[in-house]
Automatic annotation (TrEMBL):
This is DEAD/DEAH box helicase. Pfam families: DbpA, DEAD, Helicase_C. One of its GO terms (molecular function) is nucleic acid binding. It comes from Cryomorpha ignava. InterPro entries: DbpA/CsdA_RNA-bd_dom, DEAD/DEAH_box_helicase_dom, DEAD/DEAH_RhlB, DEAD_box_RNA_helicase, Helicase_ATP-bd, Helicase_C-like, Nucleotide-bd_a/b_plait_sf, P-loop_NTPase. Residues 232-376 form the Helicase C-terminal domain. One of its GO terms (cellular component) is cytosol.
């Protein structure tokens, strides 16, 4: 591998690189530095986030810029404001001894006139986000007609964020004779399509295998019931004293729920999502970068562009639908030569997804046990003891207190003091905790170790023989509104409280009570959920679910795909009697649940059957449900 000194970089750049503490190129940099000595060419580089990609394209680019020409010679396109600013900052460091070369960052969320004035002064390099670049082109402030280099950083992320049309507009504004460099952590078909259309005869380099996990990241997973997901998260964080990481959630509401619970328990956490204004986002990110926050709770969209080298952990509160998203998430830790841990909290039916990820990333995933509160208490006691031993406080106030303490403890032996301190510290460590020794782990052996026993399922069937369990029957009433109203009624609710859950699907989607209950049982993987009344109209439906599980059900099903419709699910305090319509973008008030990568793995209905419709049957080959007369089935979340 060549060194920076041997690369042929300009002396001014070498000096700047030395100031930054860089000694030897990273693997991806070693692959791109030879471009210094070759005619401009198209390049496709596959490399993980955190492998030094910015320097990999930045150093060769700055080396080739003509400082005497003030026109824009290079455009660097990236998906987010944060990444845009980070790239610009790095470029400024690389060229600090080249004062005649200027770089300008253009991005949304900042005054456009200020950025326009900077462009008018002349910048050889422009770093921007797609939307703002197009705005500047339309305003006549940015002319791409003469650029020689067009660089796309995190191309897969830009396409995931829906910038395909913007990319095509920008490509069409650039000259045909230019060098296009595309950098991506993954290479999905959409990225391949862009490269084939706009990058003829491109060289390809790859650091590691396609979609391979980062080398410095270890992968762990914990298996718990969906309802214990937050408790597992809390305990995992509690047992790691130096935790500094990002917790990934599926929805904005989930980030709010998780962060609110953590904050109420005293954890330095904050949520970041698309609901924040740019000013609020900057404030949160500023605190996180300074270490004032140790946990950043984020959606995938909100986390794009976050570039922090010191993260110890990435936690998947919910596994993503797309395995490639997992690669992106885990790549945010273990950077700059440091080690990191990617943690996934799953339920029993998602263990096959772990196997898929192992196969795709080429990494081994280690199953771990969620620590009990006893174990956490023990760790905290040791930490308190260490803190006490290393405490160094002097002063007259302390001296006066010591006299009182000496008198109080007079007559206690060394063993007595240690014994009493340990008892006190343990009580302090677990203050306010309940069920301190509760074990919430599920066995990770086999694929169905946490699946309800078959006998339990039989007790749930509408067979007329409750086997000592409960008996349910289905009653249909004609609905004057032209739709069909269906409900199940429990003879004895056992005194349980129920919460109503509203859905935006109904008989028009061939929904029936068996299919609705089956969908819930499939996702929740729980045989103890009790159902009350069910009402189904033409376009909407509602079901009473015991309050213990209602929130988890709502979060787990929100956003999933049922036939051609994406589910909207809401909790309601209205009694059943008229089916409500979930509001647009409806969400729930909890943070548990989760499906896998969009494929159902077991039959729905929990044993229920609807004799008229034929019920739901699981098609193993297709990985979806189908009813006796219906072609519509539950398929999980959209990718």
């Amino acid at each position: 591998m060549i060194t920076f000194e041997e690369s042929g970089l300009k002396p001014e750049i070498l000096r700047a690189v030395a100031d930054m503490g860089f000694e030897n190129p990273t693997p991806v940099q070693a692959e791109t530095l030879p471009l210094l000595h070759e005619p401009p060419t198209n390049l496709i580089a596959l490399a993980q986030t955190g492998t030094g990609k910015t320097a990999a394209f930045g150093l060769p680019l700055i080396h080739r810029i003509d400082a005497s020409n003030k026109k824009t010679q290079a455009l660097v396109l990236c998906p987010t404001r944060e990444l845009c600013l980070q790239i610009t900052k790095d470029f400024e460091n690389y060229m600090k001894y080249l004062p005649k070369i200027a770089v300008t960052a253009i991005y949304g969320g900042a005054p456009i006139h200020t950025q326009e004035r900077q462009l008018n002064k002349g910048s050889q390099i422009v770093v921007g986000t797609p939307g703002r670049v197009i705005d500047m082109i339309k305003r006549g402030a940015l002319d791409l007609a003469n650029i020689e280099w067009f660089i796309l950083d995190e191309a897969d992320e830009m396409l995931n964020m829906g910038f395909k049309d913007d990319l095509e507009i920008i490509f069409n504004k650039t000259p045909s004779e230019k060098a296009t460099w595309l950098f991506s952590a993954t290479m999905p078909p959409r990225v391949e399509s862009i490269s084939k259309r706009y990058m003829k005869d491109a060289q390809r380099i790859a650091v590691g295998k396609r979609n391979e996990g980062a080398a410095n990241v270890s992968h762990e997973y914990y298996v718990v019931q969906a309802r214990d997901r937050f408790e597992a998260l809390r305990r995992i964080v509690a047992v790691h004293d130096e935790f500094y990481g990002v917790v990934f959630c599926r929805t904005r509401q989930e980030t709010t729920d998780v962060s609110s619970k953590l904050i109420s328990m005293g954890y330095p956490a904050e949520a970041i999502s698309g609901a924040l204004s740019q000013q609020q986002r900057d404030h949160v990110m500023g605190r996180f970068r300074k270490g004032q926050l140790k946990l950043l709770i984020a959606t995938d969209v909100a986390a794009r562009g976050i570039d922090i080298d010191d993260l110890t952990h990435v936690i998947n509160f919910q596994l993503p639908d797309d395995p490639e998203v997992y690669v992106h998430r885990s790549g945010r830790t273990g950077r700059a030569g440091k080690s990191g841990i990617a943690v996934s909290i799953i339920h029993g039916r998602q263990k096959n997804k772990i196997r898929e990820l192992e196969k795709m990333t080429g990494k081994s995933f280690q199953v771990k046990q969620v620590p009990t509160m006893d174990e956490i208490g023990r760790k905290k006691v040791v930490a308190l003891a260490e803190e006490m031993v290393n405490a160094k406080v002097k002063g007259k106030a302390v001296d006066s207190i010591l006299t009182e303490v000496y008198l109080m403890m007079e007559g206690m032996t060394r063993e007595d003091l240690i014994d009493q301190f340990t008892k006190w510290a343990y009580v302090q460590a677990l203050a306010g905790e309940s069920a301190a020794s509760t074990d919430i782990n599920i066995s990770a052996k086999g694929g169905d170790s946490d699946r309800p026993e078959r006998g339990n399922r039989r007790e749930r069937r509408d067979s007329g023989d409750d086997g000592g369990g409960r008996r349910e029957r289905i009653r249909r009433d004609d609905d004057d509104g032209g739709g069909r109203r269906e409900r199940t009624r429990r003879d004895d609710d056992g005194g349980k409280s129920f919460t109503r859950v509203d859905f935006n699907i109904g008989s028009e989607q061939n929904l029936n009570p068996g299919r609705l209950m089956g969908m819930i049982n499939e996702v929740m993987n729980n045989s103890s959920i009790n159902f009350g009344k069910i009402e189904i109209d033409r376009e909407n439906s509602a079901i009473d679910i015991d309050s213990e599980h209602a929130s988890n059900v709502a979060v787990s099903l929100e956003g999933m795909q049922f036939g051609a419709k994406q589910l909207r699910v809401e909790l309601s305090d209205k009694p059943l009697g008229k089916v409500g319509r979930p509001s647009k973008g409806g969400s729930s008030r909890s943070s548990d649940g989760g499906a896998g990568f969009g494929k159902s793995r077991s039959g729905g209905g929990g044993g229920y059957s609807d004799r008229k419709s034929g019920g739901d049957k699981y098609d193993k080959k297709k990985g979806s449900f189908k009813g006796g007369k219906s072609k519509t089935g539950y398929k999980g979340r959209k990718k």
